[in-house]
Amino acid sequence: MCGIVGAVAERNIANILLEGLKRLEYRGYDSAGLTVIRDGELHRERQVGKVQALVDAVEVNPEFFNGHIGIAHTRWATHGEPAQRNAHPHVSGKIAVVHNGIVENYAELKEDLLAKGYEFTSQTDTEVVAHLIHDAYKQTPDLMEAVRTVTPLLQGAFALGIVHVDSPDELITVRLGSPLVIGVGIGENFIASDQLALLPVTNRFMYLEEGDIARITRDSIQVYADGIEVKRSVNEIDASQHNADKGEFKHYMLKEIYEQPDAVARTLEMAIDSSNTSSLRKDFLQCNEAQLAGIRHIQVLACGTSYHAGMVAKYWFENLTRLPCSVEIASEFRYRNPVVVDNSLIICISQSGETADTLSALRDTQKQKPTGLVSLALCNVPTSSLVRETDIFLPTHAGPEIGVASTKAFTTQLAALMLLVLKIGVTQDRIDEQRLTTLLGELHKLPGQLYASLHLDASIKKMSEHFEEKRSCLFLGRGLQFPIALEGALKLKEISYIHAEGYAAGELKHGPLALVDKDMPIVVLAPKDSMFDKLKANMQEVHARHGELFVFASEESKMVAEERMHIVYVPEVCEILAPIVYSVPVQLLSYHVAVMRGTDVDQPRNLAKSVTVE
Ligand code: G6P
User: Does residue 379 carry a catalytic annotation?
Assistant: First the structure.
């Protein structure tokens, strides 16, 4: 988390830094700050809260920040509360540092620095880095060399941007475990945690490898790995694919909900040719067929919403291919010394591809070196660490997702997972032709069904009025809808701050039924599927105890509204793909409840979109 931006140019760079920070705000928004070198001095401004507070502060005296080199930061607090003194950049003498990540051994380093007489003004781990570089610079007055001396002392994961008043033409950057790209301009160069930050100024990017240190000037970029200068290629991207405007929508989240039919269609195109829906496209994961043929077990690792996508995939893999599939939250998996069985496919699902726990869990499986291990990244960011560290990359084509609450990233993950299930099933002769043709035909209809589900928006908005004053809520589902119940509860709690829990409806009687009374809204995902009759019995249990039901059902279910039972009919969809379509109403419900309660929908309190710390 946290976002960093830096620039060295002939023009004034303050606005480039501020615009970059706005685009990185999804990474954290507890405080923001920037430093520009001007007239032989560091000019720094830091503000608690969102980037706009920093923009407003800079506008009071903009000339003060006119400069050609600078660094900036938007923070998600880890060490030290969100306060001005903890906001980056951190300064030691003439050196300023911005940092994304965590320096785990900062306390010991701080002890040493205190003994040397350094004073600390913040509670952060980053200030240690600034002082260490300052100390090293005293021995070797070359910024690059000083940084090179310091980085081996730091344990943890970090990306750094560093400037020094005495070297006003160079920006030093380090990447070790946290994302960082270099934006390549003409007579100007930039750094950022995400290329999205730099799209207004360049579409050419250099991706650093872990451990790289780079010296960046207006017209040169030198990259070093283990002290040796190395070449890193420059890639040009199609900036139109990275449109990050809200357009006509009030919030990114709503825009992203509405983008789902197109996004899912793009993802499906990887494997399905609309002129032939009876077989998978030949080129879909073609070069990975040998790897996929040997797999006997599937292990999914993910966090948050991506974990819920993995839970759906478990049902699909086991039902359709009979391959055993385990799914685990990455932060648990990595610390329990798990057994990785031979011939496992490790599927890491991650929108960002930078989630620290998912990356570490992947590395742990690789360290065990089981025979026939194959790793796959299901990811929305092709240049991410996760993609680089896995054998196979299966992209989701969601486009940039800015709202912290994940929507289109989730449904495209589900679409891609279904394609993967089919590919493995076909490769291993576990899915017959007839079933494949039926499923491909159903997948082909999916974007249209998602589109139709958006027509529920007005009725769901109406339904959401019942939730405005509530303090707690249950989401129920069974079978394939259980993960969607969890996802619905996660969406509601993260953006509306209403406490919500998702439950497998069969578990109701083992505890949560005690919570049910007339004040408890209960959202039920009720397609007419093989679990419907069982689910109906669970709904009766709730209704009999005066709970108020809010049911997303298919018309085919013939359910009718009655007292304390509200129904919204969801477009017909086959049972196996229903979790994708039923995601839309729960997203819309959370969205409207949050808007009604006046919360910050796109940037809910205490959260960040890209969680690069454990
Ligand atoms: C954060 C985001 C969630 C996301 C989770 C995992 O908590 O707010 O929306 O599901 O991280 O992120 P990933 O990028 O690995 O999917």
Answer: no
| pLDDT of amino acid 405 | 95
352 lines ligand 1 (CB under 6 A): yes
Across the chain, which distance is largest between two alpha carbons, in Å? 79
* 83 CB neighbour count, 10 Å cutoff: 14
609 as an active site residue: the answer is yes
Omega prior to 382 cis, within 30 of 0: no
Domains and CATH numbers, the chain: 3-242 (3.60.20.10), 252-454 (3.40.50.10490), 457-597 (3.40.50.10490)
Is the CB–ligand 1 distance for residue 355 below 6 Å?
yes
Using the structure block, give the residue that is written with the tokens 């069974």.
478
Q: How confident is the model at residue 244 (pLDDT cuts 50, 70, 90)?
A: low
Neighbours of 108 (CB within 10 A): 12
Comparing C-alpha atoms, which of 497, 502, 499, 548 is closest to residue 522? 548
CA angle, 334 then 335 then 339, to 5°: 70
Cα–Cα distance measured from residue 348 to residue 300, given in angstroms and rounded to the nearest whole number:
6
Q: Is the pTM of this model over 0.85?
A: no
Ligand 1: residue whose CA is nearest its atom 5: 304
Q: Which residues pair with 73 in a beta bridge?
A: 4, 33
Say how many Å lie between the CA of residue 174 and the centre of ligand 1: 24
| Backbone torsions φ then ψ of 10, nearest 5 degrees | -85, -30
Q: Where are the alpha helices (DSSP H) in 481-577?
A: 482-496, 532-544
Centre a 10 Å sphere on the Cβ of residue 517 and count the other Cβ atoms it contains.
10
**Does 407 contact ligand 1 (Cβ within 6 A)?**
no
pLDDT in tens, 538-584: 998 888 888 999 999 998 888 889 999 999 999 999 999 999 999 99
Rounded to whole angstroms, what are the CA distances from 608 to 25, 48, 440, 480, 592?
8, 16, 36, 28, 21
Q: How far is the CA of 435 from the centre of ligand 1 (A)?
A: 33
Instruction: Find the DSSP H helices in 285-432.
Output: 289-293, 304-316, 330-333, 356-367, 385-389, 408-427
What are the backbone dihedrals phi and psi of residue 86, each rounded to the nearest 5 degrees, phi first? -95, -5
Residue matched to tokens 């007055």: 141
User: What average pLDDT does this structure show over 237-262?
Assistant: 84
**Closest Cα to residue 48, out of 24, 31, 63, 73?**
31
404 CB near ligand 1 (under 6 Å): yes
Of the pLDDT bands very low, low, confident and very high (cuts 50, 70, 90), residue 233 is very high
* Ligand 1 center–CA 356 separation, angstroms: 10
| Pairwise CA distance, residues 554 & 563, whole Å | 19
pLDDT class for 243, splitting at 50, 70, 90? low
* Alpha-carbon distance values, 203 to 19, 173, 231, 243, 351 (Å): 15, 20, 19, 12, 21
